[in-house]
Amino acid sequence: MITTRPQPTTRKPDTAIYERRESAVRSYARSMPRQFNKAEGAWMHDNQGGRYLDFLSGCSTLNYGHNHPVLKQALLDYIAADGITHGLDLHTDAKAAFLETLETVILRPRGLNYRAMFTGPTGTNAVEAAIKLARKVTGRELVIAFTNGFHGMTLGALACTGNAAKRGGAGVPLSHVAHEPYDGYHGPDVDTADLLERRLSDPSSGLDAPAAILVETVQGEGGLNSASPEWLRRIAAIARHHGALMIVDDIQAGCGRTGGFFSFEGMGFTPDVVTMAKSLSGMGLPFALALFRPELDQWSPGEHNGTFRGNNHAFVTATAALRHFWGSAMFQADIARRGTLLERLLETMAAEHGLSTRGRGMMRGIDLKSGEIATAVTAGCFERGLIIETSGAHDEIVKVLAPLVIDDALLSAGLDILEICIREALAVHYGVAAE
Amino acid sequence: MITTRPQPTTRKPDTAIYERRESAVRSYARSMPRQFNKAEGAWMHDNQGGRYLDFLSGCSTLNYGHNHPVLKQALLDYIAADGITHGLDLHTDAKAAFLETLETVILRPRGLNYRAMFTGPTGTNAVEAAIKLARKVTGRELVIAFTNGFHGMTLGALACTGNAAKRGGAGVPLSHVAHEPYDGYHGPDVDTADLLERRLSDPSSGLDAPAAILVETVQGEGGLNSASPEWLRRIAAIARHHGALMIVDDIQAGCGRTGGFFSFEGMGFTPDVVTMAKSLSGMGLPFALALFRPELDQWSPGEHNGTFRGNNHAFVTATAALRHFWGSAMFQADIARRGTLLERLLETMAAEHGLSTRGRGMMRGIDLKSGEIATAVTAGCFERGLIIETSGAHDEIVKVLAPLVIDDALLSAGLDILEICIREALAVHYGVAAE
Amino acid sequence: MITTRPQPTTRKPDTAIYERRESAVRSYARSMPRQFNKAEGAWMHDNQGGRYLDFLSGCSTLNYGHNHPVLKQALLDYIAADGITHGLDLHTDAKAAFLETLETVILRPRGLNYRAMFTGPTGTNAVEAAIKLARKVTGRELVIAFTNGFHGMTLGALACTGNAAKRGGAGVPLSHVAHEPYDGYHGPDVDTADLLERRLSDPSSGLDAPAAILVETVQGEGGLNSASPEWLRRIAAIARHHGALMIVDDIQAGCGRTGGFFSFEGMGFTPDVVTMAKSLSGMGLPFALALFRPELDQWSPGEHNGTFRGNNHAFVTATAALRHFWGSAMFQADIARRGTLLERLLETMAAEHGLSTRGRGMMRGIDLKSGEIATAVTAGCFERGLIIETSGAHDEIVKVLAPLVIDDALLSAGLDILEICIREALAVHYGVAAE
Amino acid sequence: MITTRPQPTTRKPDTAIYERRESAVRSYARSMPRQFNKAEGAWMHDNQGGRYLDFLSGCSTLNYGHNHPVLKQALLDYIAADGITHGLDLHTDAKAAFLETLETVILRPRGLNYRAMFTGPTGTNAVEAAIKLARKVTGRELVIAFTNGFHGMTLGALACTGNAAKRGGAGVPLSHVAHEPYDGYHGPDVDTADLLERRLSDPSSGLDAPAAILVETVQGEGGLNSASPEWLRRIAAIARHHGALMIVDDIQAGCGRTGGFFSFEGMGFTPDVVTMAKSLSGMGLPFALALFRPELDQWSPGEHNGTFRGNNHAFVTATAALRHFWGSAMFQADIARRGTLLERLLETMAAEHGLSTRGRGMMRGIDLKSGEIATAVTAGCFERGLIIETSGAHDEIVKVLAPLVIDDALLSAGLDILEICIREALAVHYGVAAE
User: Fold this and answer.
1) Taking the model in full, what pTM does it have?
2) Which stretches are annotated as coiled coil (chains A, B, C, D) (predicted)?
């Protein structure tokens, strides 16, 4: 039987070392002032005996939960045997196993013919590599990204990111990217794919011919906006028609979070390039890749590189994760079922408070219509032992990113806490007594 | 007794999976077509029983050798105990231990007062963070970098990198950076610090007031050019005088490679910002940080972030490495001695062939004056079981990046192989019979 | 009585000198291969005795016709008296007279309080100065321009121009400008001011806070698209609300072309900055200025300059033009009446052929829905002695830019020629016999 | 006999209209607070009867003096005959005459085969066109300009300009240009052509392959630095070797100012592109052109344009100037002689005060080593009726830009005033009693 009760601690830990030595840029540590020391599955433990249910999952980096035993054992065995830890981009058994597993478990069954590029092991590096490649292949500079898109913090990826506070950190104007309205951005009556098509077809629109259209199927940081398959197919067709590459940034929405291994499965189009990171290693190890059609693989050797581009520990855990979770249809069926459960529970909760939900699969949230309220909700959750965060332009969406493998009872238990905190926060905000 | 004889295999492994599924961007795997499966200390093993002496060390990422037993055990213990693997930037025991060790073992003994920013765990992310911060703090855009500098592949860091082939991969013009001549670039008679000072002091020089001066003390990728302490002090003074931050990119030259933990120790200046990566985790795990004076820590929470910015496995191995190697003066003394040995052996070798050496500490090379010859040398070495690579604008420098902990006998054995291959390559090239 | 019959020549002149010595960039000379030597009012004469009715008017630079006798005499007198021709930005009688006339004849009656900046004497220089000032005053970089906007050919103004062929000439990516949809761009059901407001109000839209919104009230080069007063008021309000300057580029639409001296008169908003050129000197002499509210006049002396920024000949003719045409209400009433006549005649013509018209005041055209047809029309007109040109993203609009002072009979005569040529071109194109 | 005595007025004119209506960007009018109304030859007259000797000549725009009678008469005749004033880029008699005269009087005798592009009629427009063309022809982005270079105020040309105050006016970072040290910039012992060659030949220098090298032979605004023929030939060779166009910006130094019609005549190299403006029209009318080798004339029709690109009045006066001054060898001989006289007089003056001179031909100045002193000198001169200005990064050079046609006695008289003012200013500054 699963114990579903979080047991948060109330004593704040000593943070002097962080104040003295860690940059003020730290963020999550501020709203969750505990020092963690252990984690397994959906649980995180702090060093004062507290236990927290994790509905953040490293922003979808821990889709299989913390320290999944299968992955953990694979890694322990590998390290114990002195497997290659760091090998630049040299061939290793671990890399070969990963590529073969990717091919047989993921690509072939989905009829996809991609090559894998191991970029530096962070999402932003993968995005940088993807847009470099698009610019190289097309000989064009402009990348079209979308409102509320989030793609990373290095200069090339940051230019594609919509968030003004992040953009402001650049210290230089961000160039060579245009942000166009995402699906639904201008309400249900405006087809934003039409707007884009109109501008790209007009030689006097001021929008230069693009190298790439870079899109998330669900905007994880931007508020869980979810694009319809029709709209995504239109974008794919527009990209093809105008000689641009379609890049799907699947860093947050991929690896099962929205149901399939790729978030665009079954939608009737195939991206030219896909970027992956976060849950790709399965266990939270730094790992990223860009996948693209072989014809696009026009790199010169070493034209884009990076010291940690072959993170062999991540190869090991990623291979184990692909085999364990994606080797049969069971996992995917389980996510589908659980995603429906989550949808139902969230919808009920939202309906009760006159709110609406967002997202798809196991990547869903509830729109509190106010960053202030949403932040009060997540703070309340944390006090009750639930780790959960906000999303959206105004931090107004409370985002449920539970592990995909979470037990249904735990999922419900966490949502119960969420419901209580929403009720309280709304009551405080609107001056109504909570029951 | 140490066995010093490499035993390379001659059979090339099956590479079909790489050709089918890995991007053409792979580079080292082309000149070293083996599949490796195990490594310890200075040795790498391939999956057909071959054994290779590693004088590349992951481009200085494996300063303590492969899978050092102390680090390995610390990591095994941590994983076995379900320590936090991935925690975004949440406080963890592993992070606190790292920060405390950094403070007590590294910063305090050196009289340095820095704060640590855990950027995305690759060198280029650390450089991006450093130049963002410099631009934010100064309100200026221009970064001054140097000829032959190498700082990374993402758009902001790539703009600081000198190499034309890498720059060409950007697909957009690289902006907001000026490259000025490095120490010695224009020969011994031209003081390039003077040139820079002249231009920055002239309001009509066309060189805008800089946010930062970004410099490597030894240019690892750019040909092992080594700046003199005098020149670096001048650069530090120029930066200060003109209101710019001095950023030392210590990603390759730091962590003992040039002798001290920082490559600038004992030179009489303190950088405003230092970037670290490569050997920082000790075991080759992705890890990077930017260090800066507390007054410069003007980040807003989350203004620069990244999913893998808290790589707890790397905290663990980095902490173990700091304690094990830097906790006493022995290691540093050992590097100093071994660096002198390397210098002597390389100088002798160079003198014999009318060549010259480059570099400092355990980061030295020999100038073959031709990329063709140097590549022939490294190819010859690999056939004899020595992994070694070139550097420099024309790949003309053969670069010895042996593990810092290498046994002297092994170091000599490797250099013997190098000497044979140089002799052969020169003979072939200049048509002289090798002895 | 006015002679209204053009008498074109059929012999093409010797163009050897142009082929030998003039750049291939020349354009109008290709479709109108005559050598002109004389002009007065609405007429141009070639050197073989031909006479052409001018419905191009130097792209609205000759609103008062060629060599208007009042302006001509003023200039002759000034030159004969050795008036200052070139005086950099020194005070001259001519400049003082212009400023005083601008104040009394134009600004005061309209309740406008602007300062005049004499930029280099071309429209693009005025636009460059305007956006520089906006960036300086606001401390922001981004300028919002509109689809189909045309603002000039120098790098700053070209970035604001929508036309892809012109943009392509830059040879570098054009930065720091976003093009948003103009009024009506997405059809009657989409309010593009709403789209803009939505994006600027969203901190995650990827659209940075703008320094300026740069807009033409009628897009002269972009196809005679005419913005509604309501939309322009919205844009003005949006600019104000978001801390941006509203710049009206009145270079082509100003100086009476659309009715008032400024094209935005009577619309209920006041731009922060207005750029003027083309017909400002009245006689076709190079002259441009930027007008702005005194509070915005934050230039340092000489911060933006230019050798010909004080074109005193232009001061003289501009002063004469302001006094002669704008000193009483008669001229404006006359334009209004003639604009209505033009509207009626064009509407009739369009209706007959199932076409539509565009534009406002004396700045109107007819949409041939095909650049090929429109070019056939203008070629046919030229053969019959009518100088007229196309506009629009596809050159699909035939644009009537007759002198504002043209006699009604001449206007009708020119439109008769246009009607014949449209009939012929449509017949040829659609295979129908022309009557 | 020539009257050589200036008669300045002391009463400052009423400047209320300027303060009320002219932008604060005005500059010369501040240090020369008079209102001028008439000018001929070397003389300017104010509206209170004052007379000033003009050693500024519109910054070398009035090389033939104010309102030269031959040019003036040609213009009066043209206007009186209703010659085309404004004709966009249509062929006109005036344009044909200019092109033919340019060919026969200037190009053929010098063995130059250039095509003429009539850009917008200001120097900055010509520079913009030149660098656009270079980028288009080469497919590269980077332009190499030089320290202290001055090329204009629009965004493309401003990026090539060295002056920090002007650059700061841009409000955006200036990109795609690198400033390299001009001849002599680093003192007599550093060959800056060598420095440039070294960097361009090094694939890791960070200096991208350039589209163009843009250079003035004498830096008019940058302090009258004069490049040696040897250095310029090296630059020409470097440009050719590296596939870049050499653009000579002859806007200030051309039209006889340094002796020949082009400032590079007789130096043993031929630029790929030459930009001209300022004195090109002869009478101070706005006029500019770019000249380039026919093979480079790869413009599409209209790819770069501008409303005033055919300033026919300027064609008329420019043609008259070419014929009158350049039709025989006399004028050039006269400049040479007078330039030598100027050199001798300035050298004597400089020697007396321990100062040095700068420049070439009739483009010379004296280095006061302090902007404060130099400004005191020019202020003193103005009080005595001599219009003269400073130049250089610190405004430390007093620049003699007398009309080329000035009578020797007048030249001497002006220099006498200058000498007195230098003596006084030095005395005040260094606390020595003036004699």
Assistant:
1) 0.96
2) none
